From TrEMBL:
Keywords: Iron, Iron-sulfur, Metal-binding, S-adenosyl-L-methionine. It comes from Thiobacillus denitrificans. GO terms for molecular function: catalytic activity; iron-sulfur cluster binding; metal ion binding. This is Elp3/MiaA/NifB-like radical SAM core domain-containing protein. The keyword Iron-sulfur applies. The lineage of its organism: Bacteria, Pseudomonadati, Pseudomonadota, Betaproteobacteria, Nitrosomonadales. Its cofactor is [4Fe-4S] cluster. One of its GO terms (cellular component) is cytosol. InterPro entries: BchE-like, Elp3/MiaA/NifB-like_rSAM, rSAM, rSAM_CUAEP, rSAM_horseshoe, rSAM_sf. It holds the Pfam family Radical_SAM.
Length: 470
């Protein structure tokens, strides 16, 4: 393993420009890692994060190659809108796309003039493309192990500009972002990781993870958010990372994403992770309906979720569940049951309202299409939405989802408290059912938990603010 030490970023004279359209309010690891690869061989590179920066003509003035990171649906939609501007700024530059949403949208991207498509561990292939000047004829998805370098973050916007940790008392901490692994060994049918990694994952060496965290602590990070699809894919590696982190930075807190299944199967690790600074866990619950969980191949049940929640609470670890509440199988009564469950479990304050508005996205390559019943009900792939359209069996469900998403977005603009947003969801759901909404008891909402200032979600349309960035 090699640590990159040279400052490789040369915005006004860069031969290569790496672009991240959006990465969940986090400073992009997936620009910083390839930047280190280019820097090691003295190729001048500039990084542009459209979540924080505009497309500056000076940055692209000398660009020969532009590589756009497509780690999620929102980023891909933003990239599609940004590409004409990038073309205008760098008319002679050759363009590549890499990340989870690049291989699955390869044909569409080629139609937009993207010449090279990379997935998986893309850094060696991006470097080979630039050094040889030859674009591969086909999409390249690398599953083999690569050498991870110390991410080159100095060309990115300051850490203070990204999402912060908000504690229960409303105090804030500057938050860094690290990855201890890539990919995932699970095959959840709706997950965008699965079509690219196909059940494989790769670990980042502990010393590189720690060095990356150290450089972020040096510029003010007081909390670290791990972006691994699942922190416990490799439990032994995860524990080594946590213990090394705590030994070096005993006051540093951190959060991670962990499956419900892993919370139960590796329950014995949680006390130690808590001792090492684990503050809260994001877990993709997705649904409280066991039939829907089975269709998604989530590997847990509603009862498993409640068991994991109780265990985390007993240890003093906050659990932040995420959901995909609107699916082809959702009913009005089923959605109401989700809201009732959040009240019963005192989780209203633990769930960002946008999590209760998300509609299932079905991108190219989705394993949901392996279900014959599902494949038969979706429409033709829609290039505009970058997904397969579907409708619920009950049109009232689709109408409710649209109403709720509009309500949540409006509430977000004026920073309405989560409890008030939930009350609006509660009223709208009962109106859709043609019923009077029972009164809400604020005592059931639960206490606020630590959370990021930008809600964690990855399968939604870009906002007007995001599109305006370029």
């Amino acid at each position: 393993m090699t640590a990159s030490t040279a400052n490789t970023c040369a915005p006004s004279g860069a031969r290569v420009v790496l672009v991240s359209p959006y990465e969940l309010g986090r400073q992009p690891f997936n620009l910083a890692q390839p930047a280190a690869w280019f820097g090691r061989v003295d190729i001048a590179v500039a990084c542009v994060d459209l979540a924080q920066q505009k497309l500056d003509p000076a940055t692209f003035a000398h660009a020969e190659f532009v590589a756009i990171y497509l780690g999620m649906h929102t980023a891909t939609r933003i990239a599609a809108a940004a590409l004409p501007k990038i073309r205008a700024l760098a008319p002679h530059a050759r363009i590549a796309a890499f990340g989870l949403y690049a291989p699955v949208n390869a044909a569409w991207l080629k139609g937009l003039g993207v010449e090279a498509i990379f997935g998986g561990e893309s850094e060696p292939d991006l470097l080979a493309w630039v050094q040889s000047g030859v674009a591969p004829a086909d999409t390249v998805v690398r599953h083999s192990k690569i050498e991870f370098l110390l991410p080159e973050r100095r060309g990115l916007p300051e850490l203070q500009r990204y999402a912060k940790l908000i504690l229960a008392d409303d105090t804030q901490k500057i938050t860094g972002f690290a990855e201890a692994s890539r990919g995932c060994k699970h095959l959840c049918r709706h997950c965008p990781v699965v079509p690219v990694y196909e059940g494989k994952f790769r670990v980042v060496p502990v010393e590189i993870v720690l060095a990356d965290i150290a450089q972020q602590v040096a510029v003010g990070a007081a909390h670290i958010s791990f972006g691994d699809p699942d922190f416990l894919n490799g439990p032994t590696h995860a524990l080594k990372v946590a213990e090394a982190l705590h030994a070096r930075f005993p006051d540093l807190t951190w959060d991670a994403t962990i499956k419900v299944e892993h919370l139960l199967n590796h329950a014995e690790l949680l006390p130690r992770l808590k001792q090492c600074g684990l503050l809260f866990i994001v877990t993709a619950v997705e649904s409280v309906d066991d039939a829907i969980l089975d269709k998604l191949a989530k590997g847990h049940t509603h009862a498993d979720f409640e068991t994991a929640l109780a265990h985390c609470r007993a240890l003093g670890i906050a659990l932040a569940p995420t959901f995909v509440p609107f699916t082809p199988w959702t009913t009005l009564a089923g959605y109401r049951e989700l809201l009732v469950t959040l009240l019963k479990l005192n989780l209203v304050e633990a769930v960002p309202p946008v999590q209760l508005a998300i509609r299932l996205l079905v991108p190219q390559g989705s394993y949901l299409l392996h279900l014959p019943e599902f494949a038969a009900r979706v429409g033709a792939f829609d290039d505009a939405m970058l997904g397969y359209p579907w409708q619920a069996d009950d049109p009232r469900v689709d109408a409710l989802q649209a109403d709720i998403m509009a309500w949540v977005m409006d509430a977000e603009k004026v920073a309405l408290p989560r409890a008030e947003v939930f009350a609006g969801l509660w009223a709208r759901t009962h109106t859709a059912l043609g019923e009077a909404a029972p009164p809400l008891d604020p005592a059931q909402f639960g206490a606020p938990i630590p959370h990021h200032s930008e809600p964690w979600y990855c399968c939604a349309e870009p906002t007007e603010t995001q599109l305006a960035s370029f």
